[in-house]
Amino acid sequence: MIPGSTASACAAVLQRDLTLAWRRRGDIAMPVLYALIVTTLFPFAVGPEPALLARIAGGVVFVTVLLAVLLSLDQLFRADIEDGSMEQLMLAPQPLALLVGMKVLAHWITSALPLIVVAPLLASMLRLPAAAMPALLLALAIATPLLSLLGAVLVALTAGSRRSGMLLALMLLPLCVPVVIFAAGAVAAAQEGLPWLAPIAWLGAGLVMAVVLAPLASAAALRIAMES
Amino acid sequence: MANWVPLWLHRLGSPPVFYRFAGAVRPWALGLALALGAVALYAGLFVAPADYQQGDAYRIIFIHVPSAWMSLFIYGAMTLAAFVGLVWRIKIAEVVAMESAPVGAAFTFITLATGSLWGKPMWGTWWTWDARLTSELVLLFIYLGIVGLYHSFEDRRQGARAACFLVLVGAVNVPIVHFSVNWWNTLHQGSTVRLVGPSHIEASMLWPLLTMMAATKLYYIASLFARVRADLIASEGGKAWVRELLTREEGAA
User: Fold this and answer.
1) Can you tell me the distance from the alpha carbon of B142 to that of B167, in angstroms, rounded to the nearest whole number?
2) What is the reported pLDDT for B246?
3) Rounded to two decimals, what is the model's pTM?
4) How many Cβ atoms sit within 10 Å of the Cβ of residue A18?
5) Are B12 and B21 within 8 A, CB to CB?
6) B112-B118-B120-B122 Cα dihedral, nearest 10 degrees
7) A213 lies within 8 A of chain B by CB
């Protein structure tokens, strides 16, 4: 790679974020632990009856993963804004949208990928039938980057504000409704033995749109948030 | 187009001019809204015939449907204002977008409340997870998120710009939410009033509905202008025209 080219800049941002995350390995475990604990609470709340648990398993796993991603999103740009590296990224000759896209990718690898890895465990704790497992994993693999991208836009908007945690939830969760509907719909269809590729295809269409639009929107939102 | 139209619009972008314009329009809009609303309510509650199936219970339509139209119309108006504000950096447009959000949230809430009152006798339940109800609820949350983001910034102008951007993000997402929820589950009756083709509604029921629609539009204008005036005074507090306004009012009192 030629030094100073767009590709090498993207690779550098990705490598930096992954290295930073690796230096603080404990933080990577947090969303996973959170998802495990929330999933454990459900049998206590609704009762340990296997049929009931199997019925709600897909939905519970999705909502849990959504909340875990939401909690980790808050950190996406914060450290960079506090130590000034965000300004450097904005001043860089490379397009900000691409660099922000790399940051989102790094965030997805460090916080959403571990969640996908433990998802089969969460699902079998709730007695999800093994037949529905491929649908669950495929839906998660498409839905989590979608959530990360959508979340990145909103986190960028709250970057300049004082209180962001609850506000982020208020802004992000309504926009996530389609993702939850299609992802959980695919798992429910697989559980009933129906074809489940159509909702997955809709999720994929959403992901393609988000990959194109969300980095541009995040970059614009960051410029608004960092104006003053 | 005559030259005075763009000139007038350009002048309207100045806060003191807009403040005076809004102050002049507001009483007329409010008066007309109340008068039309009273006529529509009287016609809807006493003149229009009872429905052959739903009896008198259907009469809540005269509140429910105009509010539902307004909840979407205000989002459209807000999106337009937010776009103009972000692209051309016109302060008034940003303020208009931000002050539309609470009014839109109020209409959305009225729609949900009257809908659940109507649902109890007709469907036998206050709330059901039907597509239209759910997307209206999501719309309410989006309105509240916009209001919340606007007020979470120390600097009002920056908050307005961030929230305007959220309005645009929401505008892309609202149709997606609507269609995905539709795909998910539906029970609500289809639309009875159409712009194109014949409406499925009796003329004696239609005209009070349309009158009420005009009344809610005028009420939106009146309420929006009052809010924009208050916002302008608050955010332009240090400027000369506000000080002049205050000294003149104190002199009159």
Assistant:
1) 9
2) 82
3) 0.88
4) 15
5) yes
6) -130
7) yes
Looking at the complex, report in whole angstroms how far the Cα of residue B2 sits from the nearest Cα belonging to chain A.
36
Q: What's the gap between Cα B32 and its chain centre?
A: 17
Q: Domain boundaries in chain A?
A: 6-225
**Is there a domain that residue B11 lies in?**
no
Query: By residue range, what is the domain housing residue B182?
Result: 30-189+204-237
- HSE-CB for A215 with a 13 A CA cutoff: 16
The residues, ordered by sequence, that sit 6+ positions from B219 with a Cβ below 8 Å of its Cβ are B29, B30, B33, B37
Residue B194 lies in a domain: no
- Specify the DSSP class assigned to residue B50: P
Which residues in chain A have Cβ-Cβ distances shorter than 8 Å to B170? 175
Helix, strand or coil for residue B51?
A: strand
Interface of A with B in 94-113 (CB under 8 A): none
Distance from the A13 Cα atom to the nearest Cα atom in chain B, whole angstroms: 26
Please state the φ and ψ torsions of residue A96, each to the nearest 5 degrees. -60, -35
Spatial CB neighbours of B189, under 8 Å, sequence gap ≥ 6:
none
The per-residue pLDDT for A100 is 94
Nearest beta carbon to residue A157 from set B149, B176, B180 = B149
Mutation to test the A interface, candidates B152, B164, B172, B173, most A Cβ within 10 Å: B152
Residues of chain B neighbouring A177 (CB-CB closer than 8 A): 134, 138, 177, 180-181
For chains A and B, count residue pairs whose Cβ atoms are closer than 8 Å. 80
Residues 6 or more apart whose Cβ sits within 8 Å of residue B19: B229, B232, B233, B241, B245
Task: Report chain B residues whose CB lies below 8 A from the CB of A225.
Answer: 158, 162
Round to whole Å and give the CA distance between B240 and B232: 13
Tokens in use for A93? 């000759």
Residue B178 has pLDDT above 80, yes or no: no
Rg (CA), chain A: 18
pLDDT in tens, B107-157: 999 999 998 888 888 778 888 787 778 888 999 999 999 999 999 888 888
Work out how many domains chain B is built from and give that number.
1
| Residue B22 within a domain | no
- The per-residue pLDDT for range A10-54, each reduced to its tens digit, is 999 999 999 999 998 888 888 999 999 999 999 999 988 989 999
Residue B246 one-letter amino acid: L
Instruction: Measure in Å the smallest separation between the Cα of B253 and chain A Cα atoms.
Output: 40
